[in-house]
């Protein structure tokens, strides 16, 4: 466990009678190399529920779980599923160390029904132009506007997630090897992301302007690549706000929170473009899946295969999806999905 994780543990304060067990469970998660931000949040929520309703209880019954479940009933089904699996895993941990605890059934697996917006080449052109045209109405030292054009281009060019982009530090950028090291990823695995000549020029220009900010340490290896005017790490919400403004300036209709188009759709678009380029160069569509999986940092080919089907739907003349192969893929997906559920039940995934 590194120093950051130790601070993470020390900052987590639980108050119910199961606080020691919650802390120990969280420590076990971190020791296995998983990112525990979501788990910490769910445990904190359940801790507050216990303090409010069962302050003197050190056991968990099905009725108690059902009561907690009812407090989340208005959330979307996918969020409920994610929260429930965390608690069920914690309850199993309690049983494993000798506590009396009921284990509720795992709720049904729900998928997000959101259909990603794949930006056209024209939309991307207008969007990037809009990002370059963004202006502040007044001087705001804490603004992150200077970094927005470079951030958006980085997301589109590399297909990385916004959280990964904002966690990049100066030392992670290697212009000599033309790559960026991602050390804080969704699945906790380090990976290298190639940067092309166009993105490299953008990043070099951004860095030259950023380094003019009169702040000590802004060029140090451990400082973040993308910072606001005060030299601090940029929060996701700030990037999202500017992105929505850029969408409107580019004439791309924004349908509201959760309805898109979203910042994350740049990643979906990058994946589709990767398939388009590979298939257009004469490669077999299905042989491209491992390459796209590596490009996106996917832990299973199933995730990347989704983008192949999405590309085929957009370009039926480019990619001919053979029914027999599609049928096999569907069967494989069902097996992979079942295995993923089993891993969650057994505590292999957090």
Quickly count the helices.
14
Shape: globular
* Overall pLDDT level: 83
Structural class: mainly alpha
What's the Cα radius of gyration? Answer: 23 Å
Structural domain tally? 3
Indicate the low-confidence ranges by residue numbers: 1-10, 321-336, 343-350
Q: How would you briefly describe this protein structure?
A:
The protein is mostly helical. It has 14 helices and three strands. It starts with a helix and ends with a helix.
Task: Provide structural commentary.
The protein is mainly α and 350 residues long. It folds into three domains: 3-96, no CATH class; 121-263, hpI Integrase, Chain A, CATH 1.10.443; 266-346, no CATH class. The protein is built from 14 helices and three strands. A three-stranded antiparallel β-sheet has the order 1-2-3, with no helix packed on it. β1 (173-174) and β2 (179-182) form a beta hairpin. The longest helix is centred in the C-terminal third of the chain and has 24 residues, at 323-346. Residues 114-320 form the Tyr recombinase domain. It comes from Bacteroides caccae.
